[in-house]
Amino acid sequence: MTSAVDALAGGPVFGLPLPELWFSLVFALLGTFLFLDGFDFGAGAIFATLSDDEAREAVLSAIGPFWDGNEVWLVVFGGALFAAFPSVYAGLFSRHYLLMFGILGALIFRGLAPEMYEQRHDARWRRWWGRSFVAGSVLAPFLLGAFAGNWLVGTPRSLTLIGVVTGVAVTALTVVSGAAFLRLKARNALPERVTDIGVGAVATYLLAAVATLGVLATRLPTGVDAVLSPPVVALVVASVALGVGYGVALRRGANLAALAAAAGLTYGLIAVVAVLMYPRIDPATGATVGDAVVSTLPLNLMSIGAALLLPLVAAYFVVLYSAFSGPITAEEAY
User: Fold this and answer.
1) What are the tens digits of pLDDT across the range 87-108?
2) Rounded CA gap, 75 and 257, in Å?
3) Angle value at C-alpha 250, between 249 and 252, nearest 5 degrees
4) Domains of the chain, residue spans
5) Full-prediction pTM beyond 0.90?
6) What's phi and psi for 174, nearest 5 deg?
7) Residue 96 three-state SS
């Protein structure tokens, strides 16, 4: 037993660059949450544009089997950040306490509202809970984007210009995913303007992303050089191509391809944040990935555990999405 512990404490397993892998994993988990729960948020925003009860029921039926499972990825992201970089977790959440409570409050309303909406058919009751559903669905990604923007530039303030533009970009991105997902799941149960909303949202996202990079050019230590670095430029060009492809696919009814393009846009945004931040993980303190990561023994143990558990979590989601694949039917309800 002692020799095994000594071996695990002596260096990273298989000589892997574990601090960098955990840095990548933390952002990959954040991207997974932003995409999977993002189309739920987007569906909630689109819900506000629908006045027909049948169309609104179709939105709720489309996301019903998935939204609570999708939120698991936010917990996994927070857990991974806490496990590998506990000082960063503590610093971020203490500096942005109000944003964290805002995000949690929005998630509570987003989750509670559909349940309450279905309890009664009174017009006033449904109007109130429908608005709560929309508010939670819009505020959650906006505040999450504000949190990410503030994290990237290392500001301790909650309300900042970078937070606002990043929040707008993330909110628009969730509508992009939501429109594609609803077109895939609800199809003819929703009006054609959902397609128009998706196309408008992708244009809004690309403009907001450019505005975000413009603000970052004035706020990051290396300024324009960081924003115009080859990896960032390549990701921006790829995002524009994906945005155009998304619009074409959605117009042609290739809804799965449109959803895949939305996924590419989401992970591309997270990759830009990670590239601009690395090697720092807490710009507010200047802590790098190597400075903030836990010691070798717990890092090795966590890596082994993650290698065993994450495939199981992924398998669960494969089963979930397979069980509820295909478009919703008229008989299905939330």
Assistant:
1) 999 999 899 989 999 999 999 9
2) 28
3) 65
4) 16-323
5) yes
6) -65, -35
7) coil
